[in-house]
Amino acid sequence: MTLRLLPETLVNRIAAGEVVERPASVVKELVENSIDAGARNIDVVIRDGGQTLISIDDDGMGMSREEIELCVERHATSKLPDDDLTHIGTLGFRGEALPSIGGIARLGIASRTQDSDTGWMMSVEGGTKSGAEPTGRTKGTRVDVRDLFFATPARLKFLKTPRTEQNHAVEIVNRLAMAHPEIGFSLSDGNRTVFKLPPSNGVLFSARLDRLTAIMGREFAENAMPIDAEREGVRLSGYASLPTLNRGNAAMQFLFVNGRPVRDKLLVGALRGAYRDFLASDRYPMVALFLDIPSNAVDVNVHPAKTEVRFRDAALVRGLIVSALKHALADAGHRASTTVSNAALGAFRPAISPLSSQQHSGGAAWRGRNGGFNSQLAERLHEFHRPLPNLDASPHAREAALQQRNYVDADGVIHDVVPQDYPLGVARAQLHATYVIAQTSDGIVIVDQHAAHERLVHERIKNALEHGGVARQGLLIPEVVELDEASTDRLMARAGELEELGLVIESFGPGTIVVRETPALLGEMDITALIRNLADDLAESEDTLSLRNNLGDVCATMACHSSVRAGRLLNGEEMNALLREMEATPHSGQCSHGRPTYVELKLHDIEKLFGRR
Ligand code: ADP
Ligand code: MG
Fold first, then answer.
1. How far is ligand 1, taken at its centre, from the CA of residue 137, in Å?
2. CATH of the domain at 565
3. Is 43 in the pocket of ligand 1 (CB under 6 A)?
4. Which ligand is nearest to the CA of 78?
5. Are both 189 and 231 inside the same structural domain?
């Protein structure tokens, strides 16, 4: 055995193994360097997914000849002036990226500082350096990386398709761009501009929202709650979506710590905690949150790629995120998302296009949804356009019409208009035994009775738990439910918790359960189905999660089997009671799974549908 120091080239390649996992990692390191250099514009070119060329051009402070020669040396950095790892104010600090990239690819650097009248360039190919030479260029730095991994061919095999690699790079640049709206970014594949984000000059908040809109979409901007909270010197700002705007995975959840995009389990967990009552556990809100934290309270030197951080006080950060979001959600409790009514309006438009003269010129132009000619519809339209019989002629009809415009309140008083203080209006009809249609002072509201009821049950149970417990109601004849043994065991293991929620069960031999009491507030319900579903829920959920913490799901299951589920006819009184209770209940705009409980169409939108505006 010979003990020796490894040659520099080898050391750099070993370091590259950690720093440069794929082309996107090179893009990340280089764009971060440009941001650290104070660039206002950063242009990225990626050819063949970055395998043949990655080029980053910036207008930052640039490097002198000496700096260019030094920057490719191992651990050469301008970013730790005080040798203090506890105060890191830049994205880079390890002085590793350029030498690592130079060890595994053909690296070219050209740069010019503000005060110099010539630029300088040099190259490193698989670890071999050339001398610096003068070159013409404007202020700033351009770094070209060609033939990535040519010196470490084993890595090449792990590259995915150019398209996939490019997507990774796009994602990296997007993340950095979200944190730096003041910088313009562009990315091209050598032929085509993939995106171009102009620098934003506005004040931080509007600039940030502009940038987030450009990257996360207009829908996010329209359905995002602004977040701004501070605790013990840690500030949290940014935007989080209303629960009604959610995704099937966490890809649209972004966290930034002191301007650095990070991936941290803490965020996912904190978000889950904050949205627990509003979203099913497999749905994810969209968020972009920015933590500003004293640099000595966070360690970014956890991994060479610097995408993980360690907080000195993780509980503080988690608590801050959860409470800020819960507050925002409480404030937004009654805001029905525009996603929903826009979607509804969008759905109307293709079918009814009032301004198209072609469609007005005759029934034959009307087509069904699938594009085929719909003769039935044409016939019905024809029927519709026949002159109406004189309504006034029938006193009965007039009576009916009048009655429809009025409503009778709880004291039997007849009113003509909808009082302003009924935001959800007065129930006019129930359709398909599922939707309550209400008239408000300036529009109509469509309530999904099942979803609304689910939310009300959830809030009632939550409230009861906070104030001494859920009232129970004994069953005259206890209900016996047959299950498999595993389900029985699972339910019995939670019997104590279920009792807190108002459901009293007992074991009745293997595979059988007796239900003795149910939550009084649920009224009549299908107990067998409820027990079976609860058993299924328990089988799926994490064992460690207490039912109280999973209240949204449990309540949803309970509500599902109680009286107001979809398919039940409601009378006027019941419908209005539902509306009034929704108004009085926080968070009633969404059901426990993040679906809206009602949508509102304003009169002016309805007028738009009919081309009146
Ligand atoms: P680090 O970013 O950790 O300092 P790098 O290897 O990425 O390490 O870069 C080394 C040094 O090269 C930086 O500290 C900086 O001084 C200089 N440098 C790199 N890229 C640029 C750039 N785009 N503009 C100006 N200076 C740069
Ligand atoms: Mg760097």
1. 18
2. 3.30.1540.20
3. no
4. 1
5. no
Q: Are residues 488 and 543 in the same domain?
A: yes
Distance CA(160)–CA(190), nearest Å, equals 19
227 within 8 A of 237, measured Cβ to Cβ: yes
Alpha-carbon span 598 to 582, nearest angstrom: 10
Tokens of 567: 């398919």
One domain for residues 279 and 176: no
Q: Which atom of ligand 1 is nearest to the CA of 61?
A: 25
Query: Same domain, yes or no, for 159 and 23?
Result: yes
Whether ligand 1 lies within 6 angstroms of the CB of 92 is answered as: yes
Q: What is the pLDDT of residues 13-39, one digit of tens each?
A: 888 777 888 999 999 999 999 999 999
Q: How far is the CA of 109 from the centre of ligand 2 (A)?
A: 14
Nearest-angstrom CA–CA distance, 319 and 294: 17
Tell me, what's the pLDDT at 388? 40
Q: How far is the CA of 201 from the centre of ligand 2 (A)?
A: 26
Among 197, 216, 245, the domain-final residue is 197
Q: Tell me whether residue 46 is in a domain.
A: yes
Atom from ligand 1 closest to the CA of residue 34: 23
Give the distance (Å) from ligand 2 centre to CA of residue 96. 7
- Residue 585 domain-assigned? yes
Residue range of the domain that includes 193: 8-197
Q: What is the pLDDT of residues 175-221, one digit of tens each?
A: 999 999 999 999 999 999 999 999 987 776 688 999 999 999 988 98
Mutational test site, ligand 1, from 71, 91, 96, max ligand atoms within 8 Å of CB: 71
Number of domains in the chain: 3
Kindly tell me if the per-residue pLDDT of 301 is higher than 80: no
Residue 28 burial class via C-beta count within 10 angstroms: exposed 0-12, middle 13-18, buried 19 and up: buried
**Same domain for 593 and 542:** yes
**How many residues can be counted in the chain?**
613
Quick one: which ligand is closest to 114's CA? Answer: 1
| Ligand 1 atom with the shortest distance to the CA of 99 | 6
Which is it for strands 504-507 and 443-448: parallel, antiparallel or unpaired?
unpaired
Q: Is residue 366 part of a domain?
A: no
pTM of the model: 0.66
Ligand 1, closest atom to CA 98? 6
Contacts made by residues 217-220, CB under 8 angstroms, sequence distance 24+: 219/245, 219/339, 220/245, 220/252, 220/286
Residues 499 and 606 in one domain: yes
Ligand 1 center from residue 37 Cα (angstroms) = 8
- Cα distance between residue 568 and residue 432, in whole Å: 9
Q: What string of DSSP letters covers 498-551? A: HHHTT-EEEE-STTEEEEEEEEGGG-SB-HHHHHHHHHHHHHHS-TTS-TTTTH
User: Of all protein residues, whose CA lies closest to atom 12 belonging to ligand 1?
Assistant: 71
| pLDDT tens per residue across span 120-155 | 999 999 889 999 999 999 999 999 999 999 988 888
As a three-state string, the secondary structure of 140-200 is: EEEEEEECCCCCCHHHHCCCCCHHHHHHHHHHHHHHHHHHCCCCEEEEECCCCEEEEECCC
